[in-house]
């Protein structure tokens, strides 16, 4: 086990390059199950979620050759092997194996997914979609069993706007007989990316990126080459770090439209931002203003940036209120920020931050992926040494985070934890 150490206070300057989108990658890889020949995906992030999904692809008989950026996946010899336990429990996105295996084999057994603990994360809308397409779905001892004689297109209205359910239903529907219409679909850029891959494989999908998606089933999908979109949450994380500590930082390989809600909030705080085709320049301002933020589905402010943004707000003058309408319990980072001298209280699904506070370095623990990003940003802002445990959460979603931040001037490194430290963290 490793920890991240940061000596805060260094100004950030230079260029940081964003990797491919984690939340696309974890859907694109399962989507390849639906093809009958090799698929190449370029620009994948080198993160543990990608490597675990690669292992799962191999467990069901596929091959997964990954060089840290490009993966070549051969699904031709895959079999509908049950995956009730083991690695499926390590990540949330293993639920995409349900839709993809159901779509290809008309059956699947997949353990209930793991992932970050952000409060309740039901998958009832995924199951509603599978059932509408003709699958029988049962939950037996923590694994979901799916089986269908045949899948038939259906009209499905999502009761909750869900990224996962929208993608999972697309995966199950692309090889179903007839037309599927998903209404009240999620509109995140990752959904368009998955629809683009499936279309390149031969699927017939219209409307991805709007709230009505129409899919006409096809009999066969074939291999292709696909280039993933940049990670808007990773880009946002570095933009927030730059707003906190940057002189002038250029975020490279970003689609500025994907982070418009964050750009608007940073400008409201007094941060100077310039955008071009695929870069964003962030120049900070020592006197930042407090702002209120409410997380919403895309194109609203993303819940995945709520935690890092909270760290930044400790530096702003006045009182800010951050409300998470997507995950009511996504506030595990707050206790850790308080240890670092932040003045924050949680009321219901809101964090109330009063600033500015000069954060102080401390020993803290990341409880989930974006809490980890929030603590790294806090560590960059703090006086003295911050030690962050729970680095495995950060490794699930950020490719080379330490190297990228060191590259723009941060004093940050990784160290092995001693046995005693591991014991302390486990008991905390
Ligand atoms: N929901 C339901 N029923 C369902 C599905 C979702 O009630 O069947 C609720 C959830 O509880 C939540 C809301 O709907 O309140 C939105 O959940 P959604 O299904 O959109 O989330 P997800 O697909 O499980 C993805 C990302 C998350 C990100 C959310 C919201 C992946 C693998 N995960 O999760 O990313 O927070 O969308 O944008 O794509 C992260 O990257 O740190 C992360 C957690």
How would you describe this structure to a colleague?
Phosphoenolpyruvate binds at residues 22-23. Keywords: Cell cycle, Cell division, Cell shape, Cell wall biogenesis/degradation, Cytoplasm, Peptidoglycan synthesis, Pyruvate, Transferase. One of its GO terms (biological process) is cell wall organization. Belongs to the EPSP synthase family. MurA subfamily. GO terms for molecular function: UDP-N-acetylglucosamine 1-carboxyvinyltransferase activity. This protein has 428 residues and is an alpha+beta fold. It folds into 2 domains: 2-14 and 260-270 and 287-427, Alpha-beta prism (UDP-n-acetylglucosamine1-carboxyvinyl-transferase, Chain), CATH 3.65.10; 22-227, Alpha-beta prism (UDP-n-acetylglucosamine1-carboxyvinyl-transferase, Chain), CATH 3.65.10. The protein contains 14 helices and 23 strands. Strands 21-22-1-23 form a 4-stranded mixed β-sheet, with helices on one face. Strands 2-14-16-15 form a 4-stranded mixed β-sheet. A 4-stranded mixed β-sheet has the order 4-5-3-13, with helices on one face. Helix 1 (22-31) packs parallel to helix 3. The longest helix has 14 residues, at 232-245. The two termini are 16 Å apart. Bound molecules: uridine-diphosphate-2(N-acetylglucosaminyl) butyric acid (EPU). Uridine-diphosphate-2(N-acetylglucosaminyl) butyric acid is lined by residues 23, 26, 92-93, 116, 120-126, 160, 162-165, 186, 233, 302-304, 326-327, 369-370, 397. Residues 23, 26, 92-93, 116, 120-126, 160, 162-165, 186, 233, 302-304, 326-327, 369-370, 397 line the site of uridine-diphosphate-2(N-acetylglucosaminyl) butyric acid.
């Amino acid at each position: 086990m490793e920890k991240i150490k940061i000596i805060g206070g260094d100004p950030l300057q230079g260029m940081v390059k964003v990797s491919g989108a984690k939340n696309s990658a974890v859907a694109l890889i399962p989507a390849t199950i639906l093809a009958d020949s090799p698929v190449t995906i370029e620009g994948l992030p080198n993160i543990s979620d990608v490597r675990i999904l690669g292992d799962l692809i191999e467990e069901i008989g596929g091959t997964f050759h990954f060089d840290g950026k490009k993966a070549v996946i051969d699904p031709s010899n895959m079999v509908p092997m049950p995956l009730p336990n083991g690695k499926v429990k390590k990540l949330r996105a293993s639920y995409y194996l349900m839709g993809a295996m159901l779509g290809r084999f008309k059956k699947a057994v997949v353990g209930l997914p793991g992932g970050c603990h952000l409060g309740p994360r039901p998958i009832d809308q995924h199951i509603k979609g599978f059932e509408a397409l003709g699958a029988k779905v049962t939950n037996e001892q923590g694994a979901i069993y799916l089986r269908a004689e045949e899948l038939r297109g259906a009209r499905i209205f999502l009761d909750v706007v869900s990224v996962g359910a929208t993608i999972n239903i697309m995966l199950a529907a692309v090889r179903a007989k007839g037309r599927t219409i998903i209404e009240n679909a999620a509109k995140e850029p990752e959904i368009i990316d998955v629809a683009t891959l499936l279309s390149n494989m031969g699927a017939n999908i219209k409307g991805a990126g709007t709230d009505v998606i129409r899919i006409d089933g096809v009999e066969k999908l074939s291999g292709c080459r696909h280039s993933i979109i940049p990670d808007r949450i990773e880009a946002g994380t570095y933009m927030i770090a730059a707003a906190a500590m940057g002189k002038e930082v250029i975020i490279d390989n970003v689609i500025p439209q994907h982070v418009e809600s964050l750009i608007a909030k940073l400008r409201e705080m007094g941060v100077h931002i310039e955008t071009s085709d695929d870069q964003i320049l962030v120049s900070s301002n020592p006197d930042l203003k407090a702002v209120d933020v409410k997380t919403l589905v895309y194109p609203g402010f993303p819940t995945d940036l709520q935690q890092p943004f909270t760290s930044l707000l400790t530096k702003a003058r006045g009182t800010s209120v951050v409300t998470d309408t997507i995950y009511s319990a996504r506030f595990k980072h707050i206790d850790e920020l308080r240890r670092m001298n932040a003045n924050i209280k949680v009321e219901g699904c809101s964090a109330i931050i009063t600033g500015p506070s000069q954060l102080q370095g401390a020993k803290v623990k990341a409880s989930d992926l974006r809490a980890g990003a929030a603590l790294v940003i806090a560590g960059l802002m703090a006086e003295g040494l911050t030690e962050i445990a729970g680095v495995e959460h950060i490794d699930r979603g950020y490719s080379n985070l330490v190297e990228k931040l060191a590259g723009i001037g941060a004093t940050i490194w990784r160290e092995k934890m001693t046995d005693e430290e591991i014991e302390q963290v486990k008991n905390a």
